[in-house]
Amino acid sequence: MLIKKSRLLSILLLALMVILAGCGSDSSSGKAEGSGNMVEKIKEKEILTVAMGGKYPPFNYINDKNELDGFDVDISKEIAKRLGVEFKPVTTEWDAIITGLLTKKYDIILGSLSITDERKEKVDFVHYYTSGGAIIVPENSKINKGKDLDGVTVGVGLGTTFEEKAIELGADVKTYSAGADAFTDMGNGRLEAVISDKLMSAYAIKTKGYPYKIADESLFVDEVGIAIRKDNPELTEEIQKIIDEMKEDGTYTEISEKWFGIDIR
Q1: Average pLDDT of 29-36?
Q2: What's the CA gap between 35 and 96, in Å, rounded?
Q3: Coil, strand or helix: which one is 141?
Q4: 123: helix, coil or strand?
Q5: pLDDT value at residue 45
Q6: Which of 21, 117, 206, 228 has its CA 20 to 30 A from that of 105?
Q7: Residue 163 near residue 193, CB atoms below 8 Å
Q8: Looking at the structure, do residues 125 and 227 belong to the same domain, yes or no?
Q9: How many C-beta neighbours within 10 Å does residue 188 have?
């Protein structure tokens, strides 16, 4: 009877070891499957999903043909082309765009997202152009520097670095989901100034004929990047390589001059 019990115990221990070994193998393979090379996965599905706000001309916006258009769109299309896949845009609300990336609703964000220390804690970036925060005011305004905005009613995009700067300067801040609405409100006398992207603002004043000017003092230099999840180092490396190649072979300059008349890198 003792022998039988001993044998039974041995059999049970052996069975348990087999089960545990099997679980370990499944866990390991599951981990590998979840953390695979993102470049390969994008090429397998033949689609690069790219998020942007869709309300930020000339970078990304809906044109007269009801199509998504702009500098960011052209850059995205070229990246997808060089990856050998189709470009699929995803427009989303700006204040939740990083959350969408982290929850894997899209592959990258290419929508004029400023590179900040806070954002770098959450995502990786590939730099692709430089702009800056500008103060836009009516032509007859005496506002010309950041210190002039203390107590002034200022319009900014919701969830942007411009909103943070306006608060820092002591302005009476009014937020907008679309930058064009802030320009309209200033024309109607509801705002004394707008803080926005210098390049975008210059484009809007030129093409829309707004009776505005850009103040002499830039509030800050804005490094803008393509955001990628931190668990996708291969994708970050590949996109950096593509952007570098575009700048070297003239493609980047061509796209930039199409929208701004200058190379904005």
Answers
A1: 42
A2: 24
A3: coil
A4: strand
A5: 96
A6: 117
A7: no
A8: yes
A9: 8
Q: Which residues of the chain form beta strands (DSSP E)?
A: 47-52, 55-56, 60-62, 68-69, 86-91, 108-114, 123-138, 153-157, 172-176, 193-197, 212-214, 220-229
176 and 55 co-located in one domain: no
Looking at the domain assignment, is residue 199 inside a domain? Answer: yes
pLDDT of residue 134: 94
**126 and 139, same domain (yes or no):** no
Whether 198 and 256 map to the same domain: the answer is no
Q: Which residues pair with 135 in a beta bridge?
A: 195
143 found inside a domain: yes
Backbone angles phi, psi at 143, to 5 degrees: -70, 125
Q: Is the pTM of this model over 0.85?
A: no
Helix (H, G, I), strand (E, B) or coil at 85: coil
The answer for residues whose C-beta is within 8 angstroms of residue 85's C-beta and 6 or more apart is 42, 43, 45, 46, 47, 48
Q: Which domain holds residue 116?
A: 38-130+223-260
Q: State the total domains in the chain.
A: 2
Mark out the alpha helices in 67-136 (DSSP H runs): 71-83, 97-102, 117-120
Whether residues 121 and 149 share a domain: the answer is no
CATH of the domain at 139: 3.40.190.10
- How does pLDDT run across 211-256, given as a tens digit for each residue? 999 998 889 888 999 999 999 999 999 999 999 999 999 999 999 9
Q: Is the dihedral of CA 179, 100, 116, 172 positive or negative?
A: positive
Query: Position 116: which residue type?
Result: T
Spatial distance between the Cα atoms of 71 and 131, rounded to a whole number of angstroms: 13
